[in-house]
Design goal:
This is Polyisoprenoid-binding protein. The protein has about 180 residues and is mainly beta. The protein contains 2 helices and 11 strands; from the N terminus they run αββββββαβββββ. The N terminus is likely disordered.
Length: about 180
């Protein structure tokens, strides 16, 4: 009986599903077009985070992004990037990240490792995540640099990186509560 109680306590420490706050969270990307920085955001995404600060190595995270919610600030541009040459949202309406490990790192940060899938292409990624507590909420902030051509974002004439750079920075701010 005592062993069962200890086991239950340990497993409850390792698993703490948090409730994602979509209104307080955001995903922003930055890239250069003709060497000028451009920022855009995804307005619809969902994050599932299991995290307990007492057992960070047991954390799990997944994020699913609605590609059609990509917002460059102009309806015509938004329509253009959903086309086959860019995100091909008709065939690949979602992008996602699924963690395979989350480990404590320097200065109270974590290193998240997992699989990122965009436009049907999956690659292994690893990036730092900072965590802070705001009231009852846990706030996760991070940046993930990617190469757009790895995911075939920008096909045909758009493979030319002199117009749209290959380097893209994905920045996220995820707020979640117990």
């Amino acid at each position: 009986m005592a062993l069962a109680a200890v086991s239950l306590t340990v497993s409850s420490l390792a698993f703490a599903a948090l409730k994602f706050d979509s209104k307080a969270s955001n995903v922003v990307i930055t890239f250069k077009q003709m060497n000028v920085p451009v920022s855009a955001k995804f307005t619809k995404f969902n994050a599932a985070i299991d995290y307990n600060p007492a057992a960070p190595e047991a954390a799990k995270a997944s994020v699913e992004i609605d590609i059609t919610s990509f917002d460059l600030g102009d309806p015509e541009y938004n329509k253009e990037v959903t086309k086959k040459e860019w995100f091909n949202a008709a065939q690949f309406p979602k992008a996602n990240f699924v963690s395979s490990s989350i480990k404590p790192a320097a200065n109270g940060t974590l290193t998240a490792t997992g699989k990122l899938t965009i436009k049907g292409k999956t690659t292994d990624v690893s990036f730092p995540v900072s965590i802070k507590k705001e009231g009852n909420n846990q706030v996760f902030d991070g940046s993930l640099p990617i190469k757009r051509l790895t995911f075939n974002i920008g096909e045909g004439d758009w493979k030319d990186t002199s117009m749209v750079a290959d380097d893209v920075m994905i920045k996220f701010h995820v707020v979640a509560a117990p």
